[in-house]
Amino acid sequence: MRFFRALxxxxxxxxxxxxxxxxxxxxxxxxxxxxxxRYGTSSVATVALVRAAHxxxxxxxxxxxxxxxxxxxxxxxxxxxxxxxxxxxxxxxxLDPATLESLVIRExxxxxxxxxxxxxANGPGTARLFYELRLGANSTDFATAKAGDFMKIFWTPxxxxxxxxxxxxxxxxxxxxxxxxxxFWSSNIPAGYGEESVPRGKIAHVIFSRLETPExxxxxxLIPATDPYLASLVTTRSSLAEALQKCGL
Length: 249
What we know:
Layout: H1 2-30, E1 38-39, H2 43-52, E2 53-56, E3 59-62, E4 69-70, H3 72-89, H4 97-102, H5 114-119, H6 125-133, E5 138-139, E6 150-154, E7 165-176, E8 179-188, E9 192-199, E10 205-209, H7 228-232, H8 240-246
């Protein structure tokens, strides 16, 4: 029994260390991203995003142009790809070629389709992907959030077709004149890539997603090619309760 308890403790510590390591890698890769540019959601921004993440000879080369327009989900996905490639390059992650191919951003990829289509969808796109593939824990609790968590901000209670949201990477909170502010990194209006802070009271809801088991990206072959829930959120209204249920919360 004593040996079993020690083994369980070792496993838990190993899992915790791996999660912390992923967060540290996410933060490191943010530091390698350009600053500024400009925010934009036009077809030009989409083309720039596709060109920024080049996959060749089994490797991702993520090189966003600093003067190109960018948008929030594209910015956080580029950091996600950079994190995966860094873990692979450092020998901490192995993924088969088919899984790596599934991460490629393709022009015309619809919301809910594949990995990028899920990440880019309205509502809880990233959190839904994490839940489906078991990539790590989702949470709505600021008390347990850590810098380097991926984060979906809902500026209003709306989820889906009428929502106003923001895909970011959480950096922490700070007090300003007695009021909590939330710090994050993304492509922000109007300046593009960079950090931003907003009063916590300006945020209606959040979902944090922590990368813990990136090797589970290989499970992409086990789930539907398109997530019908996320695909529907282009025009259909959902609710926070439904969104959280779809993310295992």
